[in-house]
Specification:
Its EC number is 1.11.1.6. By secondary structure, the chain is an alpha+beta fold. The chain has 18 helices and 19 strands.
């Protein structure tokens, strides 16, 4: 196996240090003036013979490539993956069999609908694409942060994307599903129902790429050395747990910092707080494929974890940021067809379409068939074949034979006698028809399962999301159609949505809700930790320096990221005369950019902050967004000014932690409140649990 360091060295061959020599043209010709074009006299016309000018302008004119049709906005990072123990019983893929080997990876996270210039925090599916640089070739696991998809057959993909993209007559709205064409498609295409439940949930508003699950979506097939196949679903589970923002928060973050998720990933890696995920597999023997009440090949369905547990098999750590966004994140070309021996495909009609579509997309986006030669796309396995010429060919082939078989070139490259990719010999028979299997016909039962599995606050957010989105839909019949579909999911859900969007609520349920649940689907049951959380500490002149110092040290010990905010940059003077260094000026940041808030004591500091409208609103908004708030000593007065309930100035109530001093007990209570992520008990649940 090639180590991450060896992969790094391979990539370094293509990296250029701009300080290693003088400025040159692309041909290596030294340049002594790049500010003035060659002209006839000081004020004369520019001369065509100025090759440096022409090269510089031509390259600039062509330095943008077409953005991806979907997943245009993204961020990426390098890292490594290591399997816990050999999976040789299931697969011949080497990187899943050697527990001592570290496999280099590159991961790209993305939004689906928006353009490259859109915001990170829009309501959308997130892409989660992982490239494993294995010794057997590149394996691309190209998935999402949701385990299901909108459609069952890839032939519908252009229709779905055209519907969700900005409407063609006015190119509005950007990166948003809250408009007529998307919901018109949804109400007429019932197979979208399950995915729309996920889309209207908090899963569409991730707090961070680092706190986001990933799924392969499709059912794939593992094949072992004996040729035995096993159906498999791929899961990525984040070490920090799966956490989300709230809708009001996301809209404000989009204005305050549209690069919120991208910046979060970059800064975490730069700080050495490396994101980590565990790879899990759901394994189904081929003999059991018909034991479910849904079709394993249906991409709009999950296998509930209560039926097939997720087996943890390895972990992935991202520990290096790209050196150049365009060369690496933008030019990385994922393709589901990039597979390795031991991992094969199934007849899932959406998967089959993606096997064609991804390659076709890269050909036009990256200008020809040689995009695998770009550094980020190069495998670490050696490449030998007869593919020649084309745009951007960088290989210099010395052989005169570019065909097979040949004798003039010694028969090279020879066919592999061992270790070749062998497709699973699945028996296939049937008539050539355009017809979907009856086992794909159930579009509602798993949408109901998802709804039943949500906590009260998750249900409330789903209802609010449907109301917001459908509230943007101008055509009443579209809203009515969506409500009718939701009535096939759950009658109470349909009534609550209808009452919020001005259509007649259904008078009776049209399908029976069996009450089945899958606790694994609820984010209420995820991992909780204060690690890497951004915590704002509000201060002004007269602050209690001991409170600040002890809180800072205690939070850093828990791997949290505290920042000291004041009305101005520089320092503030504490009550004892000490200078407290300010991390950021309050006017440059906002409550929505932090996970929690801590207010140290010091009466002079609190008086100043209480008279600062931005500081008071900072506190109010943090409480409104259900975040943990801590107050020490006099700090409780700022809570009262902001009208934050604080339980008679004592104790820990709804994530508001009060203490007299910043000791270990307070830090632990506050850290526990931060780890909870959001304190939704502050909102009155209007939805039955």
């Amino acid at each position: 196996m090639t180590s991450p360091d060896e992969k790094q060295r391979q990539l370094d061959v293509h990296r250029v240090d701009p300080c290693a020599g003088v400025l040159t043209t692309d041909q290596g010709i030294p340049v002594d003036d790049t500010d003035n074009s060659l002209r006839m006299g000081e004020r004369g016309p520019t001369l065509m013979e100025d090759f440096h000018f022409r090269e510089k302008i031509t390259h600039f004119d062509h330095e943008r490539i077409p953005e991806r049709v979907v997943h245009a906005r993204g961020a990426g990072a390098y890292g490594h993956f290591q399997v816990y123990q050999s999976l040789a019983d299931y697969t011949s893929a080497e990187f899943l069999r050697d527990a001592s080997a570290s496999t280099p990876v590159f991961v790209r996270f993305s939004t689906v609908a928006g353009s490259r210039g859109s915001a990170d925090t829009v309501r959308d599916v997130r892409g989660f694409a992982t490239r494993f640089y294995t010794n057997q070739g590149n394996f691309d696991l190209v998935g999402n942060n949701m385990p299901v998809f909108f459609i069952q057959d890839g032939i519908k993909f252009p229709d779905f994307v055209h519907a969700v993209k900005p409407e063609p007559h006015n190119e509005i709205p950007q990166a948003s599903s809250a408009h007529d064409t998307l919901w018109d498609f949804v109400q007429l295409q019932p197979e979208t129902t399950h995915m729309m439940m996920w889309m209207m949930s908090d899963r569409a508003l991730p707090r961070s790429f680092r706190m986001m699950q990933g799924f392969g979506v499709h059912t794939f097939r593992l094949v072992n050395d004996a040729g035995v196949g096993t159906f498999v679903k791929f899961h990525w589970k984040p070490r920090l747990g799966t956490h989300s923002l709230v809708w009001d928060e996301t809209q404000k973050v989009a204005g305050k910092d549209p690069d919120f998720n991208r910046r979060d990933l970059w800064e975490a890696i730069e700080a050495g707080q490396y994101p980590e995920w565990e790879l899990g597999l759901q394994l189904v023997p081929e003999a059991d494929q018909d034991r479910f009440d849904f079709d394993l090949l249906d991409a709009t369905k999950i296998i509930p974890e209560e039926q097939v547990p997720v087996l943890p098999v390895g972990r992935m750590i991202l520990d290096r940021n790209p050196d150049n966004f365009f060369a690496e994140v933008e030019q990385v070309a994922f393709h589901l067809g990039n597979s390795v021996p031991g991992i094969d495909f199934t007849d899932d009609p959406l998967l089959q379409a993606r096997l064609f579509s991804y390659l076709d997309t890269q050909l036009i986006r990256l200008g020809g068939p040689n995009f695998p030669q770009l550094p980020v796309n190069r495998p670490i396995a050696p490449v030998h074949n007869h593919q020649v010429d084309g745009y951007h060919q960088t290989e210099i082939t010395k052989s005169r034979t570019t065909y097979h078989p040949n004798s003039l070139g010694g028969g090279c490259p020879a066919l592999a006698e061992a270790g070749a990719y062998v497709h699973y010999p699945e028996h296939v028979a049937g008539d050539k028809i355009r017809k979907r299997a009856g086992s794909f016909a159930d579009h509602y039962s798993q949408a109901t399962l998802f709804w039943n599995s949500m906590s009260a606050w998750e249900k409330e957010h789903i209802v609010a999301a449907f109301r917001f989105e459908l509230g943007k839909v101008e055509h009443r019949h579209v809203r009515e159609g969506v409500v009718a579909n939701l009535n096939r999911v759950d009658h109470d859900l349909a009534v609550m949505v209808a009452e919020g969007v001005g259509v007649e609520p259904p008078d009776r349920a049209v399908s029976e809700n069996q009450g089945l649940r899958s606790p694994a689907l609820s984010q209420a049951n995820t991992t909780h930790s204060p690690a890497t959380r951004k915590i704002a500490i509000l201060v002004a002149d007269g602050v209690d320096a001991d409170d600040v110092e002890m809180a800072w040290a205690g939070l850093c010990d828990l791997a949290a990221n505290p920042e000291i905010l004041a009305a101005r940059d520089g320092t503030v003077r504490a009550a004892d005369g000490a200078l407290v260094k300010v991390t950021r000026a309050l006017p440059t940041v906002d409550s929505v950019l932090y996970d929690a808030l801590l207010i140290p004591g010091g009466m002079d500091s609190i008086r100043t902050l209480s008279q600062d409208g931005k500081a008071v609103y900072f506190v109010t908004e943090a409480f409104k967004h259900y975040k943990a708030i801590g107050a020490l000593g006099d700090g409780v007065e700022l809570l009262l000014t902001a009208r934050v309930p604080c339980e008679d100035r004592h104790g820990h109530h709804e994530g508001v932690v009060i203490g007299e001093r910043s000791d270990g007990v307070f830090i632990k209570e506050f850290a526990d409140a931060v780890a909870t992520h959001r304190h939704y008990e502050r909102e009155v649940a209007a939805v039955p649990a």
